[in-house]
Specification:
It is a single chain. About 55% of the residues lie in helices and about 5% in strands. The chain is of the alpha/beta class. It has a six-stranded mixed sheet, with helices on one face.
Amino acid sequence: MRFLRLHHPPGAVRPVDLRVVRDRSAWGFALLCILLAFAFLGSRGLWDPDEGRYANVALNMLDSGDWLNPKRSGDVGHWTKPPLTYWAIAASVGVFGKTAAAARLPAALCYLLCIWLTWRIGRRLAPGCERTAALAYATMLLPFGASQMVTTDFLLAAFETLAVWAFVEARMSGRHPGAWGGLMWVGFALAFLTKGPPGLLPLPVLLAFDWLVWRRHPGFRLWGLSLFCLLALPWFVAVVADNPGLLEYFVGDEVVNRVVTDKFGRHGQWYGWLLVYAPTLVVGTMPWSPALWRWLRALPADLQRWRSVEGRQADPAALFLALWVLLPLLVFCLAQSRLPLYLLPLFVPLALLVAVQRRKEHRPLPRWPWLAAWVVVLLALKLAASFWPTHKDASQWAVAIHERAPGPVHEVIFVEDMTRYGLRLHLDAEIEKIGLDPVPAGARARFNPVDDEDLATELAEAADQPGAVWICKQSRWPGIRLRIAALGFVATPLGTPYRGRVIFRTRPVAALSGPVAGQDRH
């Protein structure tokens, strides 16, 4: 609507063009989200093990040109996740360079996408709440923190939310339901390529909602499933065909064992869900946690109301949001593998619930001084992480290695120690983990073995690679040095230990013809 230009007496309040106000507010919010996503993105190095592991596999893909087979080293595959996260990281690093910021860029972009999708879903499910919902998501502690981490979780959250948004549009827009249904299956296919079956976790929510409200499942047709299969399955078919036994590994270890066993040591106790997920939900939704607590207190009354079809049809949006949170949360609690970031896809519906609850209570958006103060806190936390002294920071390990081993480093070999895969990015060197003893052929795991090679094999290979650097725990250094000597090599420490580790080089005894550079003479 255009506002007429009227004459006003002095001191009168002039009418405000609401479109201009909304446009300015929208641009301000967009700039705020960009600031939260990209500020200090590369201010710290990659943190091992997770960030380093994902970046290492992605860089191996980029450098080798083999985008089909994820590998943690030249000869050892890494099959714990499908490839889409690795592809995204490798593409980003290939375009923007081998930096921590480039490795984190896909997660930051997915954070922005989830904010936008939250706004779109809120506009459709609860008109008038979309701005509060998007603001809540952008400033919640867990989504903000996860946007600065190299993991699969934000890509998974973004693609799952894309699928749910398409479903909501297909049901409520009344336009182009077939196109929206196709987009929904595209979202699920991308989520499946990111993390496998967990990417389909919102699908039971959509089915349950359709059944509870309309007693039917329109849109879930054969062509949609065909589109999903066309996009999601070719990679799985290709790698399974090339690697006999890989299907059994995917199903057995990466699906069944993660759900019904504590094989991976991720809080599998019967009370583990309480230890992991309760703090994640309370702290991760700050500063909006009180609104969710009030929603939770009102939930029993809502459940009573939803027992009838009429009650469900009277408020389908509230039912949908409750299902979107509660059904996946139940699955996460029952599964024996539990980590805080598993809940990240639930923070979109949680942000929407915050907005709906605040509208019920007639609470306006927070005042800008309060919001500005919280944004400063978030940015300060991000900046402080770059100064936090931690052994996990691979960039600090790279500095320590360069100080002790001047010149190019082509390979870093960890001897029965935590492998710092982040050095793959910060040193541009191949990273390997080895054991002291060879594993019998029948006992060695075919997929994702504990060690890449044994000590004797690696020594023979490293003899022809003068740029190799070795690392072991200081407490085990005397024994490892003797084992190396027994195999006809000399291990020479480089400088003083770093964080309880000895950094050293090896040379065959026959190759010694003088003092070794950096040798400890004491």
